[in-house]
């Protein structure tokens, strides 16, 4: 019971909740659109066992829906009607689903009964089959026969002696066989009785199980059908109440509709007057648009010109700043040039003085050397003239003269080198002064 209720509640949870309209008026000022509701035909529930739900409630629903069809409703009422219709369709689908489950349970129970009957037929056939009975006889009486045969054999051997005749042996053997047949018949009858009892027990148990399964399924179906009936009746009552509420709301809202139609007519008249004024204003607006377009063009051109002027002014300021920077740089370079020129001039004078001084010293050394040579030559000539100089002395004099001549030549070459270095230095300083833009003639 609880499981079936849970399944019903889970199936209709969230979907069967009927959305009721709030009391606050949600109607807009728009013109009402008459919507004729075309209801779906409510499906009649064809149940094999229960016919208590349906006819009266369905007829009442049809009447209420026909009343709604003939009236002009708004969109919200139509949406609520759709929701109600969906809930009804879901109820019908759930009922059909439960009917299918019940039919499946019935077919399953019938199949189980047929299986039990087939088993019973098989047992009866096997019991009545002579070949199977023979096998049963052999199998079932084998243990008991062995015991009886062993006992009778011992008694028979104890009674029979070698001295007996053949007739007595045959009689005793026939008695033994009769006893065996009696034992076998007793065993067979007991086995047959036991098999019949087992067969009856199996048949009764199968019938009981089948009946119990059918009763359980019928009870489950009955409880679920009762729950469905109660739920369907509740939903139909709620739907009828909502339909009545909708009718009352429609009756209340009709006078508001008339007022709104009058207001709409007045608004239409005002609208026509306003449209004429709007046309005039549109013409004036178009003229103003043309003027504004011309003004926009002129303003765009002015913007371009002002942008060009601003760019030129920026360039002018940048050039003035660059000119000032260059002038300052030029003044600094002039000052540096003058300082360098003064330094070069002082250095040149210093070098010139040093070179002249060295040349003067060298010239004096050369004069002294020449004077010494002249005096030495005079002494030599006088000594040669007197004839007092020997060969050895002559050799020494020649060597001394050669050394002195070589020394003189070295001094002359140094003097020439000094003159050349001085000239190169002066040329180099003059070239540097010219590269700095200083005029030698002016200096």
TrEMBL record:
GO terms for molecular function: microtubule binding; small GTPase binding. Residues 1-34 are annotated as: Disordered. Residues 218-411 form the Growth arrest-specific protein domain. GO terms for biological process: cell motility. Residues 1-10 have a biased composition (Polar residues). Pfam families: GAS. It comes from Trichomonas vaginalis (strain ATCC PRA-98 / G3). Its main location: other. This is Growth arrest-specific protein 8 domain-containing protein. The keyword Kinase does not apply. Keywords: Cell projection, Cilium, Coiled coil, Cytoplasm, Cytoskeleton, Flagellum, Microtubule. Belongs to the DRC4 family. It is found in: Cell projection, Cilium, Flagellum; Cytoplasm, Cytoskeleton. GO terms for cellular component: Golgi apparatus; microtubule; motile cilium. Residues 61-108, 193-227, 264-428 form a coiled coil. The lineage of its organism: Eukaryota, Metamonada, Parabasalia, Trichomonadida, Trichomonadidae.
């Amino acid at each position: 019971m609880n499981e079936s209720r849970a399944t019903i509640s889970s199936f209709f949870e969230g979907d069967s909740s009927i959305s009721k309209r709030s009391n606050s008026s949600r109607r807009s000022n728009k013109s009402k659109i008459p919507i004729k509701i075309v209801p779906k035909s409510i499906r009649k529930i064809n149940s094999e066992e229960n016919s208590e739900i349906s006819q009266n409630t369905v007829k009442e629903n049809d009447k209420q829906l026909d009343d709604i069809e003939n009236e002009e409703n708004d969109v919200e009422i139509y949406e609520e009607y759709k929701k109600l219709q969906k809930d009804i369709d879901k109820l019908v689908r759930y009922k059909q689903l439960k009917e299918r489950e019940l039919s499946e349970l019935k077919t399953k129970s019938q199949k189980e009964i047929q299986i039990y009957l087939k088993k019973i037929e098989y047992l009866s056939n096997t019991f009545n089959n002579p070949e199977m009975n023979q096998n049963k006889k052999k199998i079932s009486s084998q243990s008991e026969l062995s015991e009886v045969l062993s006992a009778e054999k011992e008694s028979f051997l104890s009674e029979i002696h070698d001295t007996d005749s053949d007739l007595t042996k045959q009689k005793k053997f026939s008695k033994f066989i009769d006893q065996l047949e009696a034992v076998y018949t007793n065993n067979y009858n007991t086995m047959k009785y036991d098999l019949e009892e087992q067969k009856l027990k199996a048949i009764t148990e199968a019938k009981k199980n089948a009946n119990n399964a059918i009763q359980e399924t019928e009870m489950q179906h009955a409880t679920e059908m009762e729950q469905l009936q109660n739920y369907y009746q509740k939903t139909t009552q709620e739907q009828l109440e909502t339909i009545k509420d909708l009718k009352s709301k429609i009756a209340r809202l009709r006078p508001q509709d008339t007022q709104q139609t009058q207001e709409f007519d007045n608004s239409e008249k005002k609208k026509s007057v306003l449209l004429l004024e709007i046309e005039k204003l549109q013409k004036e607006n178009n003229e103003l648009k043309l003027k504004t377009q011309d003004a926009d063009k002129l303003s765009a051109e002015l913007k371009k010109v002002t942008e060009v002027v601003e760019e030129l002014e920026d360039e002018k300021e940048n050039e003035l700043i660059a000119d000032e920077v260059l002038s300052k740089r030029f003044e600094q370079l002039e000052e540096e040039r003058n300082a360098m020129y003064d330094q070069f001039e002082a250095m040149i004078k210093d070098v010139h003085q040093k070179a002249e001084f060295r040349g003067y010293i060298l010239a004096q050394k050369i004069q002294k050397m020449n004077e010494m040579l002249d005096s030495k030559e005079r002494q030599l000539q006088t000594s040669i003239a007197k004839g007092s100089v020997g060969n050895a002395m002559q050799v020494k004099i020649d060597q001394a003269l050669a050394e002195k001549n070589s020394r003189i030549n070295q001094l002359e070459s140094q003097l020439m080198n000094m003159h050349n270095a001085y000239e190169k230095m002066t040329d180099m300083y003059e070239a540097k002064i010219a590269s700095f833009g200083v005029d030698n003639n002016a200096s």
